[in-house]
Write a structure and sequence with these properties.
Elements: H1 2-26, H2 65-71, E1 75-85, H3 93-99, E2 107-118, E3 124-127, H4 129-132, E4 137-141, E5 147-149, E6 151-156, E7 161-165, E8 187-192, E9 200-211, E10 222-225, E11 237-240, E12 245-252, E13 263-267, H5 268-281, E14 287-288, E15 291-295, H6 298-304, E16 312-317, H7 322-325, E17 333-337, E18 340-341, H8 345-353, E19 360-367, E20 370-377, E21 379-380
Antiparallel strand pairs: 1-2, 1-4, 2-3, 3-7, 4-5, 6-7, 8-9, 8-11, 9-10, 10-13, 11-12, 12-13, 14-21, 15-16, 16-17, 17-18, 17-19, 19-20
Length: 388
């Protein structure tokens, strides 16, 4: 009797497992978990947004060797030397005792290093202004081992760009990309000669676009990247995943002097405009109003009883400057230039810079709560004095 019951149980279990296997194979939907019961009143639910199915994954990129191979030959090392005179302290009795006046004001030659990018077959090279600033001698080392003297064509301290030129045959040339087509998250490569160890390629992504208010240059619109940039990378290339130039590496944010993953590059949208003017005339011509601007803050909104929190407050107007001649006054709030809204100081300075000297700009300001239209005859922005 017990044996018959055991056989019956074994046969039933076997049949049940077989049915479960068949259902799981052919009709898995039948085995899905039943929906959760309705929420209990008074109990908080967590709502999340979830895709219905896993997104399709694109093919992974295993190497950026092709991009690096395209760009590296056009990236050069820039070596500069300049003579400086060190003046020891007049109050150092030890110096006076042992050396007297013999070493006072003795000249010393100082060398520095940067990078550059060959922009044209004519030998024009892009680099940073701070790389070649006040240099007495400039030489360039190409990726193929050639080294030659370079001459400065022009520099623009307000964007930290400079153009050099060399006379050499068979020059490799960088291909310019579209910085205005970049998106945060795009892969970029930084190429240069950090610490003079030799040409080096680092990879990262675009961390942010349109960075300004860094207090580095007068006109800022940086690409931020986490590609490692160190001393010596200045003036080198930032290229996209196809090896096209999208920026000139310029600045790192660091307390130690080394890369911490926050670097800034000047986008090619600015680079091309500055380069063309420097090659053509040796300088960059920009529009000029002659005002001291300041961004609107909540405190200024309250103090000036402003009806808006966008625009730029004129803190001061230079004597005999274009804005002053047009009737602009301290305390005016500039809200538009030639019909384009003014939102902050960096944006306004870029708007003014793009105006042709001698043209008339239609400027709308708020003064004592009412709108005033001014016709400003644009001047030419003075070239800033070089710091030695």
């Amino acid at each position: 009797m017990l044996r018959r019951l055991w056989l019956l149980f074994a046969q039933a279990s076997t049949v049940g497992l077989a049915i479960l296997f068949i259902v799981a194979t052919l009709k898995p939907d039948w085995l899905r978990r039943a929906p959760l019961p309705a929420a209990t009143p008074g109990v908080r639910e967590v709502s999340i947004q979830q895709v219905a199915s896993a997104p399709a994954r694109g093919g992974a990129v295993n190497s950026y060797a092709d991009a690096a191979r395209r760009a590296m030959p056009a990236v050069v090392s820039v070596y500069t030397t300049k003579e400086i005179r060190r003046t020891p302290s007049m109050d150092d009795p030890l110096f006076e005792r042992f050396f007297g006046d013999r070493l006072r004001g003795q000249a010393e030659r100082v060398s520095s290093l940067g990078s550059g990018v060959i922009a044209s077959a004519d030998g024009y090279i892009l680099t940073n202004h701070h790389v070649v600033q006040a240099a007495d001698e400039i030489s360039v080392a190409l990726a193929d081992g050639r080294r030659m003297d370079a001459r400065l064509i022009g520099a623009d301290p307000e964007t930290d760009l400079a153009v050099l030129r060399i006379d050499a045959p068979r020059l490799p040339v960088i291909t310019f990309g579209r910085a205005d087509a970049l998106s945060v998250g795009d892969v970029v490569l930084a190429i240069g000669n950090p610490f003079d160890v030799g040409q080096t390629v680092t990879m990262g992504i675009v961390s942010a676009l349109g960075r300004n208010n860094l207090g580095v240059n007068r006109f800022e619109n940086f690409i931020q990247t986490d590609a490692a940039i160190n001393q010596g990378n200045s003036g080198g290339a930032l290229v996209d995943a196809s090896g096209n130039l999208v920026g000139i590496n310029s600045v790192i944010y660091s307390r130690s002097g080394g890369s911490i993953g926050i670097g800034f590059a000047i986008p090619t949208t600015i680079v091309t405009q500055v380069m063309e003017q420097l090659i053509r005339s040796g300088k960059v011509v920009r529009g000029y109003f002659g005002i001291e601007p300041v961004d609107i803050t909540p405190e200024l909104v309250d103090a000036l009883k402003l009806a808006r929190n966008e625009g730029v407050v004129v803190r001061g107007v230079q004597r005999n400057a274009p804005a002053g001649k047009a009737g602009m006054e301290p305390g005016d709030v500039i809200v538009s230039i030639n019909g384009l809204d003014v939102r902050d100081t960096p944006g306004m300075l870029n708007q003014i810079a793009q105006l042709a000297p001698g043209s008339v700009a239609k400027v709308k300001v708020l003064r004592a709560g009412r709108e005033v239209d001014l016709d400003v005859t644009v001047g030419e922005r003075p070239i800033p004095q070089e710091r030695k």
